[in-house]
From TrEMBL:
Coiled-coil blocks: 87-128
Keywords, ordered alphabetically: Coiled coil
Domain of life: Eukaryota
The species this protein was found in: Polypedilum vanderplanki
Protein name: Heat shock factor 2-binding protein
InterPro entries per UniProt: HSF2BP (IPR039584)
The keyword Coiled coil belongs to this UniProt entry's keyword annotation: yes
An annotated GO cellular component: cytosol
Length: 355
């Protein structure tokens, strides 16, 4: 119960008590007058003696009436001002409560309107969410279709000739950036539309740089270079096992890019590019990703004759526990790739390191 309701209840209770008191006083006056009238009715005027006796009784009655009136006046002089004050206060309170009720009614009207608007917005939001789901599903499906068609020999040339390559690279860069800013390392489930869409974009990217004309376009346009850097940046944040398909595809993309000097240089000069590739040598990535990562490192060494780069890579491998484990693992293909990489580095740096 609110404070205003408590005040109103108290007011009603107090008024009730005062009115009850006033009623009692008036009832007493009525009873006294009734007694007086009854006494008067008993008077007789048959003879002088009796008349004298009646006069005495009348005088007695007058005194009683005077006393009753005096008592009634005293009581009423006390109670009536109180009652009038209470009535005045009650009147003011009623006005105040009427104003409060009016305000509550206005508030209820406003809240009802807001509720109605909120319900409309909820309906709109549900429709938008449904539309977003349809759009995501459609985007994922179309991206898959484009991924498949991008494998054809003339597809990349068509993208360039029709002016759709640049918008695609721009859209892909913004999509990957938004995906990274939204999810970071906490990737959605692989079967979601979001991951499916991203996977398709990376697949198209991979097919683009698989052809020389596509690699040249990516490496000679700012938006293409920004896209590569963004992929290298996000690549390191992705956690296994949810990122298995994405990491596998990114390594293939980087491998296709690394078979040219400019592409290899872009990867090698990336702030965390080599370190992120070396992370893929851990056992949690599985032998397929480990094999692609080793092949990528071999390709980089083949393309880059920088003594400084090869020396740094050599030192990183010498301190990498995962690489040492792969050197003695049971998978012959992985051991072969490790030895091939080590051999090239040893020959190019003219130094030996005991693994």
């Amino acid at each position: 119960m609110t404070q205003k309701e408590n005040e109103f209840n108290n007011l009603i209770n107090n008024n009730s008590q005062l009115l009850t008191s006033a009623a009692d006083i008036l009832q007493q006056i009525f009873e006294n007058f009734s007694g007086l009238l009854e006494d008067i009715s008993k008077l007789s005027f048959k003879n002088d003696v009796e008349q004298s006796s009646n006069i005495f009784e009348i005088n007695q009655c007058k005194r009683k009436v005077s006393e009753y009136i005096h008592q009634a006046n005293q009581s009423l002089h006390i109670e009536i001002p109180n009652l009038l004050e209470v009535v005045k206060e009650s009147k003011q309170k009623i006005i105040e409560y009427e104003e409060i009720i009016k305000n509550y009614e206005n508030d209820i009207e406003k809240l009802t309107e807001r509720l109605k608007n909120a319900e409309n917005k909820c309906t709109e939001t549900k429709n938008l969410e449904q539309q977003n789901t349809y759009s995501a599903a459609m985007g994922s499906t179309l991206a898959k279709m484009l991924w498949k068609t991008s494998k054809s020999q003339g597809a990349i040339q068509t993208y360039i000739d029709t002016g759709t390559m640049h918008p695609f690279l721009n859209l892909s860069h913004n999509t990957i950036a938004g995906f990274q800013d939204t999810y970071h390392e906490n990737l959605p489930a692989p079967e979601t539309f979001e991951v499916s869409y991203l996977l398709s974009l990376l697949g198209i990217y991979t097919n683009i740089v698989a052809q020389s004309i596509g690699r040249d376009y990516v490496l000679t346009h700012e938006i293409g270079v920004l896209g590569v850097k963004r992929i290298l940046s996000y690549f390191g944040e992705m956690k296994m096992p949810s990122a298995h398909l994405l990491k596998r595809l990114i390594l293939m993309f980087l491998y296709n890019l690394s078979i040219t000097n400019e592409g290899a240089k872009l990867i090698a000069e990336s702030e965390t590019g080599i370190d992120n590739i070396l992370k893929c040598l851990s056992v949690e990535h599985g032998d397929e990703i480990q094999g692609i990562a080793l092949s990528l490192l071999v390709s980089l060494v083949n393309e880059l004759d920088s003594h400084n780069f090869q020396k740094q890579l050599f030192m990183k491998l010498s301190q990498n526990d995962n690489f040492q484990k792969l050197m003695i693992c049971k998978d012959v293909s992985l051991v072969t790739l490790c030895r091939k990489l080590l051999e090239k580095l040893e020959n190019n740096t003219c130094s030996l390191f005991d693994f």
